Amino acid sequence: MEDHFECGVYRIIRDALLSSGPSLGDGDVGSMPIGALVEVMEVVDLQEDQRVRARIRFGGADAGWISLKSTDGQKVWAEKVAEELWITDNSVLNADSPGIAYRHSQSIDDRVEDQLVCWGQAVRGCVTPNGDWLEARVALATFWISSDACRARFGIHVLHTDFLA
User: Fold this and answer.
1) Residue 86 and residue 10: Cα distance in Å, rounded?
2) What are the CB-based long-range contacts (under 8 Å, 24+) for 109-116?
């Protein structure tokens, strides 16, 4: 079980109520279903509520606050999604390009000039909560790659995309 929570992408593993603020006494504004991917933006340890709470984004927008776990460790609502190895694969697309261009943000128009992932190259990253992008860390920078039509093969994720270099 995770003792230290940090910002990043988490998967909801138990139905989680969304509230408007960090305290359990703040008004409920909705819920997150099991399996949803959320981006944790801030984590607080609220001893008075016996919870570790997080401010989250979902679908690219601020969503509210959820519990990550109870302070006694008996209940866990979300687990951090680990970065995985992704390999670019041109076997389906058969594109004439040398690879897939990185983006500075989750905008297809925000292309990183002169930097791409060549076909067959591996990159570490995790899928964003909305499932549309792969967030990849390259050196000290964070870039995004469109993750349309990704699939897994032999435990290694293979990335196909229509957004070419």
Assistant:
1) 18
2) 112/143, 115/143, 116/165
Distance CA 59, CA 113 (A): 27
H helical segments located in the chain: none
pLDDT digits (tens, 9 = 90+) for 83-103: 777 777 777 777 888 888 888
Mean confidence (pLDDT) of the chain: 79
Q: Which two tokens stand for residue 127?
A: 């899928």
Q: Could you tell me which of 105, 104, 106, 101 has the C-alpha nearest to residue 88?
A: 101
Instruction: Check residue 154 and give its pLDDT.
Output: 36
pLDDT at 45 > cutoff 70: yes
Residue 71 phi, psi dihedral angles, 5° rounding:
-65, -20
143 contact partners, CB below 8 Å, separation of at least 6: 102, 103, 104, 112, 115, 135, 136, 137
3-state class (DSSP) for residue 47: helix
pTM tops 0.85, yes or no: no
Query: 140 or 76: which carries more pLDDT confidence?
Result: 76
Q: How far, in Å, CA of 121 to CA of 14, rounded?
A: 36
